């Protein structure tokens, strides 16, 4: 339960980002500056934490593996922001949140084990809740179908699913501090290629509120989730972590209502509840199985394991 809470809080941390991004845009900053400052301060903060709390060193192979995990995380943001140039935000978030079933299917193929019925039910609820909470059914207006936008949105879902699944097995012998720092470095590399960090040299980083929003976005978008995922995902598995990752959307909807005072329709609130139910179902089912499974003799236990 402790490790599930870590993953859940890491996903909720991602849900905070949209509120800070909204404030940063209101201050006149553009996507290049907001995303770049987030990655920049995230990398710096992560390495400061390594200096404070970790003496472990990573090998070249471990560096390359964790940089790959960071690239998958950084690519998610780049692809998602790119998709929003072609589709409305409500459609974009629904496309990106397809990472739930994508991640579970990838994990099932890797382990050659089909998801349990409770996880299949959870996925159906997550998909239905995402459509409702994303505002797609609330008369958000017609939108012109864009194949490029849809593909970019689904690509962001795929890379985010990979990020969660990679956390289960990638260099798990490293402590979470060093893993998170290398991941943040990989994310910074991807962001710098797509969004050149001009803000570092043109003085904007030290002017206005860019540093303020960059640090907040770094904490909630880089440091906390990468650290918590590094702690929790190897312990609970990629399929369950993917389902818990859906907590991001309810958090974003809740903060948009409470902090930004944006209108959230009743159907969106219902969608939030449906998502939360979908997240809880696998946990309840797992606890039920544990409490109802009778004690077995050692020989019977071996037999059950063989059948499983």
Protein architecture, described:
With 308 residues, the chain is mainly alpha-helical. It has one domain (2-290). It has 13 helices and no strands. It has helices at residues 2-26, 31-53, 60-83, 89-96, 99-111, 117-133, 147-169, 176-194, 210-236, 238-244, 248-258, 266-292, 298-307. Residues 296-308 have low confidence and may be disordered.
Tell me the layout of helices and strands.
Blueprint: H1 2-26, H2 31-53, H3 60-83, H4 89-96, H5 99-111, H6 117-133, H7 147-169, H8 176-194, H9 210-236, H10 238-244, H11 248-258, H12 266-292, H13 298-307
Helix pairs in contact: 1-9, 1-11, 2-8, 2-9, 3-7, 3-8, 4-7, 5-7, 5-10, 6-12, 7-9, 7-10, 8-9, 9-10
Major β-sheet, in short? none
Q: Beta-strand percentage?
A: under 5%
Mean of the pLDDT scores?
80
Helical fraction equals over 70%
Q: Give the CA-based shape.
A: globular
* Ends apart, CA distance between termini: 23 Å
CA radius of gyration? 20 Å
Structural class: mainly alpha
SSE run: HHHHHHHHHHHHH
* Count, helices: 13
Any idea how many domains? Answer: 1
- Which regions have little confidence, pLDDT < 50, spanning 5+ residues? 296-308
Total count of strands: 0
Top keywords for this entry?
308 residues; mainly alpha; 13 helices; disordered C terminus
Report a brief summary of the structure:
This protein has 13 helices and no strands.
